[in-house]
Structures are given as C-alpha cells and as structure tokens.
Amino acid sequence: MEAHALTIRLTNKVEFPFLVLLISGGHCLLALVRGVSDFLLLGKSLDIAPGDMLDKVARRLSLIKHPECSTMSGGKAIEHLAKQGNKLHFDFKPPMQRAKNCDFSFSGLQHVIDKTIMQKEIEEGIEKGQILSSAADIAAAVQHTIACHIAKRTHRAILFCKQRNLLSQSNAVLVVSGGVASNLYIRKALEIITDATQCTLLCPPPRLCTDNGVMIAWNGVERLRAGLGILYDTEGIRYEPKYVVPFIICMQVAL
C-alpha cells in the first residue's frame, strides 16, 4: 500500500499531505498521506475489492468466450464491453448510501448482479457459460454503479479532510492508484468530484498502477531519503505479509 501511495511522487511533483485512493483486485482504501510512512486510514472495503468484483462478474458473464474480450483481464473486458452497453438498462443501487463514513462494500452488489444474470439466463433460455444478449448492458451498469460508489465515498473523504484542515482548501491532491485506477470511466467519475471540490486528480501511468518492481524500488528511495527503515544488520528481522496502516480514524468520518 505504501509503495502504491508514493509512486505518484516518481512521476509528478506532489508534496505531503495528499489523499490516496487505492483500488485494485486486492485492496480498496482511502488514506491521508502525511509523510513517507505516515498514513491516516479514512476508509476501507468491508469485504471484497472492486477489482476482484469486476473479475468475478466478467467470469460469471463468461466474457472470456466473447470474441472481443477473450484476451483481456476481467476488469478490462468489463470496461471494453461497457462502451457498447446502456448503463441505465439495469438499475443496480450503489451500496452503503446511508452510511456516514468512507468505507466501501462490494459483496452485496455482486450478489444482486449474480441473481440478475441468472434471471436473464432463464429469460433467454440459455445455460450458464453462454453469452447473454444483454452482457454489454450489464457490464455498463456494473461499471457505472461501482464508479458511483467509489466516487461518493471519496467525496466524503475529501470533505472530511478539508473540514478538519487535513488538506489544503485550494490545492488539495487526490492520488488514485492500483489496477482499477486504469479504468477510464471510474477515473472520469472521480474527476467530477475533484473538480467540484477544487482538488487535483493525479494517477500514475497505467504501467505503474498495477503491482510492479519500479514502485517498490521508488518506495525504497523515498525511505532512504527520509532515513526510515535503514538497517545495517538484518539478523532477527521479522517480516509482515501485509502492511498495516498505523493510524486509523475511520470512526471519526461521520459528516
């Protein structure tokens, strides 16, 4: 998570503090980045990540059998097919609309979509694994609903940070990273809220959005410059499989 958050400083001149939204196949969180290793966690997914959900929907729609999507990842297939569909054909509701926090949730939405796909298969008289005639409409509606959910929670985080003077009132920065950050539709939804809140939206190049060695190396450079975690004796080091954000203020985000 730390490497994803700091990658933008390799490609752009970004000063601390800034807000980071990490959206990928394994993560979904909002954090205020106050320094190289200084984060305030504002919100996170309560279940699965958006990239994981997009992949599962793509598999359920059997998009690997679609002639235009056979070589694409699940998320890319959804984004590609959504361009041909009507996002309003299916009325999927964004999750947690009444929740006064910055957390995310995707598993309930996925369950609704699975039931919708099953119902459409019955209506069209096809078996599971065949391509629905409405696959593009479902893809468009799914992508739109996810984008709305992510944008709304991020909007709350921006307002919270500005009300608490945790971000600049006039030149705040929102950094979006992770594999899902390469989805242009979701990025456009985030541009709408950053424009409305006088923030600048920045995303690393697509090749640096997914997990990569460059971001890990840059994270090391940032830590070296800051004098953090420089060890000359590696004996007895304990390794953690996942980074844990040390400061969590999710419960305070109740606008």
TrEMBL record:
GO terms for molecular function: metal ion binding; tRNA N(6)-L-threonylcarbamoyladenine synthase activity. The keyword Zinc does not apply. It catalyses: L-threonylcarbamoyladenylate + adenosine(37) in tRNA = N(6)-L-threonylcarbamoyladenosine(37) in tRNA + AMP + H(+). It comes from the Eukaryota. It is found in: Mitochondrion. Residues 1-218 form the Gcp-like domain. Its main location: mitochondrion. GO terms for cellular component: mitochondrion. GO terms for biological process: tRNA processing. Gene3D superfamilies: 3.30.420.40. It comes from Rousettus aegyptiacus. This is N(6)-L-threonylcarbamoyladenine synthase.
